[in-house]
Amino acid sequence: MLKILHIAGLWLYFLLPSVLCDNLPCFYSPMLEKDKTPEFVVTECPPSKVCFKADGRYGNHSVLSARGCVAKKDCSQKQKVHFKGTTYTVSYSCCDQPYCNSCLNIALEPLCLTLTLVTVHSLACIFLYY
User: Fold this and answer.
1) Does 33 fall in a domain?
2) CB–CB of 32/66 below 8 Å?
3) What gap in Å lies between CA 97 and CA 70, rounded to an integer?
4) Which of 2, 14, 28, 62 can pair with 68 through a Cys bridge, CB separation 3.0 to 4.6 Å?
5) CATH for 83
6) Residue 19: is its pLDDT beyond 60?
7) 119, part of any domain
8) Domain limits for position 54
9) What are the C-alpha distances in Å from 110 to residues 13, 15, 42, 74, 104?
10) pLDDT at residue number 108
11) Assigned domain for 13 exists
């Protein structure tokens, strides 16, 4: 029982600051060719920024993609980006919900995800010790 309380205390210690802050959790992936599978990393956007999905085009072909944080003023803008010696036109689709820039368009509620993980972990600990 003491171990469960210790684990719950650690969860609160590490998760409470992110819950109390106004930072927006989003996925990050650097600019990559569309045929490469990105490895998403969770990042936090400061209050002045939102999550984005970027689409890099060369002519009529969508060839690049990226995800991350961008200033609200840059949403729906098109910019010229140089990538591996070629100039692409990149447009940004923005959103302001947690994890809204996932590739599957699934918005995860961080609290629900955290509660699910804590519940699964607690149940696993109970079954392992009894």
Assistant:
1) yes
2) yes
3) 14
4) 28
5) 2.10.60.10
6) no
7) no
8) 22-104
9) 16, 10, 12, 26, 16
10) 47
11) no
**Residue 14 included in any domain:** no
- 45-95 pLDDT, tens digit per residue, is 999 899 999 999 999 999 999 999 999 988 888 999 998 999 999 999 999
Q: Which residues pair with 89 in a beta bridge?
A: 57, 80
The C-alpha atoms of residue 12 and residue 18 are separated, in whole angstroms, by 10
Q: What is the mean pLDDT of the chain?
A: 79
Check the CA dihedral 100-105-110-111 and report its sign.
positive
The token duo for 72 is 């609200």
Tell whether the torsion through CA atoms of 18, 24, 29 and 35 is positive or negative: positive
Give the span between the Cα atoms of 11 and 114, in whole angstroms. Answer: 9
Question: How many structural domains are present in the chain?
Answer: 1
Tokens matching residue 42: 């969770």
Pairing of the two strands 86-95 and 41-45: unpaired
Q: What mean pLDDT comes out for the span 113-127?
A: 68
